């Protein structure tokens, strides 16, 4: 029933272009006039997760190909100079991020810090990449942007104007996705309320059907480990990098102090919260699990309204 979260790591800078095979090859090379993106117009919400357009369809063009962003335009045709110059600090990963890392030093052994264009491109396949850290709304404003892409190979080069249109909005300062339900429960309503814009604290309330608070002692974390000598709980005790730094149970809520945001520490990733109750809340076993992240600092109130018959 349960599957651990597998994180895809970004390796494309390590791709050696000369090792890529080709379908059509000649001494002169072939550059197809039909090069294009499968989805030439996409809607995106920047600032929460890694965004990718997908590779450009090469249509049997001779490989290796070399892709570059030639220009980024506003919808009115003007060049988006500030956006083209906008760079962010991000990470390329050489090993899997598991969420079990205990220190930043342990994370840093798996990744390399780089400074990249906020709107980037994989030079080997044309995949447009927008990093989670691209969150400056004074530069990356709402609206549509049109990206021109230049392609080169042994057959020559081609400028593909208006290759990709991105319709930009802003991501919420948190993410939430219900992952599953089991037992005597029909649903959840989960809300995230940023009560204060500064601070490092999360208040967690779980409510019964009638709106009264659940004692957090009655909810237990689901153990993902198959080893009887090892526990792997996905609960509020385990939020990565030894978070929370302080865990306090009150009769009606949890109070969690956090070392810092974003939570989890790695931008664009999520935490799994997986809780169950043996029946004293609603008369029958139930289990729920969801994925979440909180991207900005503050004092946050997370309210989980249980739904059951």
Task: Please outline the helices and strands.
Elements: E1 36-37, E2 41-46, E3 51-52, E4 56-57, E5 66-74, H1 81-85, E6 87-93, H2 104-108, E7 111-117, E8 119-121, E9 128-130, E10 143-153, E11 156-170, E12 174-183, E13 187-196, E14 200-207, E15 220-221, E16 246-249, E17 254-257, E18 271-277, E19 286-294, E20 298-307
In short:
This protein has 309 residues and is mostly beta strands. It has two helices and 20 strands.
List the keywords.
single chain; disordered N terminus; 5-stranded mixed β-sheet; mainly beta
Describe the structure.
By secondary structure, the chain is mainly beta. The relative contact order is 0.19. The chain is elongated. Helices cover 3% and strands 42% of the residues. Residues 1-26 have low confidence and may be disordered. A hairpin with an 8-residue loop joins strand 18 and strand 19. The strands form 6 sheets. The protein has a 5-stranded mixed sheet, with no helix packed on it.
Instruction: Record the strand order, biggest sheet.
Output: 13-20-14-17-16
Estimated share of beta-strand residues: 35-45%
Structural class: mainly beta
- Taken in chain order, the helices and strands follow as EEEEEHEHEEEEEEEEEEEEEE
Number of DSSP-assigned strands: 20
> What is the gyration radius calculated from CA atoms?
23 Å
């Amino acid at each position: 029933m349960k599957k651990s979260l597998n994180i895809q790591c970004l390796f494309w800078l390590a791709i050696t272009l000369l090792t890529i095979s080709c379908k059509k090859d000649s001494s002169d090379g072939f550059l197809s006039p039909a090069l294009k993106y499968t989805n030439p117009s996409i809607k995106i919400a920047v600032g929460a997760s890694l965004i990718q357009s997908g590779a450009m369809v090469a249509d049997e063009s001779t490989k290796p190909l070399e892709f570059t962003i030639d220009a980024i335009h506003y919808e009115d045709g003007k060049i988006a100079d500030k956006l083209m110059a906008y760079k962010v600090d991000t990470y390329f990963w050489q090993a899997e991020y598991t969420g079990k890392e205990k220190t930043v030093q342990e994370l840093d052994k798996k990744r390399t810090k780089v400074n990249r264009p906020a709107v980037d491109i994989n030079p080997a396949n044309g995949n447009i990449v927008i990093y989670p850290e691209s969150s400056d709304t004074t530069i990356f404003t709402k609206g549509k942007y049109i990206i021109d892409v230049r392609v080169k190979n042994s057959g020559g080069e081609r400028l593909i104007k208006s290759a990709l249109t991105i319709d930009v909005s802003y991501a919420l300062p948190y993410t939430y996705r219900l992952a599953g339900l089991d037992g005597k429960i029909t649903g959840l309503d989960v809300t995230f309320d940023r009560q204060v814009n500064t601070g490092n604290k999360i208040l967690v309330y779980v409510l019964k059907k009638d709106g009264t608070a659940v004692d957090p002692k009655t909810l237990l974390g689901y153990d993902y480990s198959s080893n009887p000598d090892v526990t792997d709980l996905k609960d509020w005790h385990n939020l990565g990098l030894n978070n929370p730094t302080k865990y306090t149970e009150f009769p009606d809520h949890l109070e969690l102090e956090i070392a810092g945001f974003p939570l989890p520490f790695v931008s664009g990733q999520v935490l799994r919260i997986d809780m169950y109750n043996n029946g004293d809340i609603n008369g029958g076993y139930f289990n729920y699990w969801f994925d979440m992240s909180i991207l900005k600092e503050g004092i946050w109130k997370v309210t989980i309204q249980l739904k059951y018959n």
